[in-house]
User: Which sequence fits this backbone?
């Protein structure tokens, strides 16, 4: 097993709490076009190696260190799927987020309700839709936490995927995660957790379905950073936020909650104040919410809460935020570095205020499966459809 050392790149970094961190690299098979050890197929019609996704996952040896591709044919897979800690290096390859769906209606408890749960490191998912159907559609079940996905393992990447729910749709529990050209729908804290995560070119669609639509103000994020040295935070770059009704961009689930939204399009669903301190009124100085270079009627920050942070010129650079996210599937060496002072987000290496946010993934290209997301119309073109089309009709497999 190979190990990779992760290093801090500026003076005060809370991302790794000033300690180095290692993680193993999955082995490649250079003779295979996908660079994987093997590919197994799942077909609900019985024409693959397996008829359920869970059985395909279970077939992977415990302690696996080689990339294994599970190709999932089109269909609605009515099952709960769990990837345990020992099932590492999995590439779930769906037929498209409008073609391959995993659905369930769990709702008993937050930590058991998820349709899809992954504990393992080194996960790549492409072209799959995840749904928790309990509160979707015309049914009048009580509105409860009903998760579409729960992601706990480090180094997980989702490309061209969709997530559907109402309350707590996506539990970004913890670890370094990347979401690219994804569609995420919900109405109450529908992206929550303490993941150290980057969301890029994705659509966040606010909808309470039939639960208080038009009367209840919902919440898009509920980030759970719980201390000054917690490395977690959500970054949304080049995203689109729209939907039906009114919503806060986020509320503080924990005392040091942190969310940055940049270069994104915000519709008029966003309430003017933008953010909610929730249970931490009086301690707003510990919260880090920042917006920069956004557009649309919801991007007006003139009436935002007075404790919202601001990006410094050093981070913005030429009028455009300079965040860079890791592309897990290419595994290029990229880093996003932002250090926070009490009043601003800056890239000043001399900042010693005790707040910092650096997202760095150092993984060599030679240890990645041979997959590059398809080149299709940018998310901005898809959003034009979203503004006039019911959310389930939106093409999300970009």
Assistant:
């Amino acid at each position: 097993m190979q190990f990779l050392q992760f290093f801090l790149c500026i003076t005060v970094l809370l991302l790794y709490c000033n300690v180095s961190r290692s993680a193993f690299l999955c082995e490649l098979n250079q003779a295979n076009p996908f660079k994987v050890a093997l590919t197994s197929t799942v077909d609900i019609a019985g024409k693959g190696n397996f008829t359920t996704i869970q059985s395909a996952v279970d077939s992977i040896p415990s302690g696996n260190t080689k990339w294994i591709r599970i190709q999932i044919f089109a269909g609605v897979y009515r099952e709960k799927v769990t990837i345990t800690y020992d099932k590492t290096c999995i590439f779930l390859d769906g037929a498209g987020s409008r073609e391959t769906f995993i659905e369930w209606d769990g709702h008993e408890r937050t930590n058991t309700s998820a349709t899809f749960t992954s504990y393992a490191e080194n996960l790549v998912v492409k072209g799959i839709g995840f749904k928790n159907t309990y509160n979707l559609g015309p049914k009048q079940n009580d509105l409860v936490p009903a998760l579409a996905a729960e992601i706990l393992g480090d180094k997980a990447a989702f490309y061209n995927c969709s997530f559907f729910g109402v309350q707590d749709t996506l539990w970004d529990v913890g670890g370094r995660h990347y979401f690219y050209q994804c569609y995420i729908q919900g109405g109450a804290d529908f992206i929550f957790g303490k993941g150290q995560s980057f969301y890029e070119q994705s659509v966040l669609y606010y909808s309470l379905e039939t639960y208080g639509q038009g009367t209840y103000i919902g919440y898009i994020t509920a980030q759970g950073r719980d201390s000054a040295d917690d490395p977690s935070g959500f970054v949304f770059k080049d995203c689109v936020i729209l939907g039906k009704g009114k919503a806060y961009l986020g509320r503080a689930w924990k005392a040091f909650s942190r969310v940055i939204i940049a270069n994104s399009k915000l519709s008029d669903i966003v309430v003017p104040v933008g953010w909610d301190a929730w249970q931490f009124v009086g301690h707003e100085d510990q919260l880090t919410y920042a917006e920069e270079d956004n557009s649309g009627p919801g991007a007006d920050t003139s009436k935002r809460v007075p404790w919202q942070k601001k990006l410094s010129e050093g981070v913005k650079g030429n009028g455009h935020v300079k965040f860079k996210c890791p592309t897990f599937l290419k595994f290029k060496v990229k880093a996003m570095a932002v250090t926070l002072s009490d009043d601003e987000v800056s890239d000043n290496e001399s900042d010693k205020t005790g707040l910092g946010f650096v997202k760095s993934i150092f993984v060599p290209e030679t240890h990645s499966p041979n997959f590059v997301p398809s080149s299709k119309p940018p998310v901005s073109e898809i959003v034009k459809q979203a503004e006039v089309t019911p959310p389930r009709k939106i093409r999300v497999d970009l």
Observations:
- The chain has three helices and 32 strands.
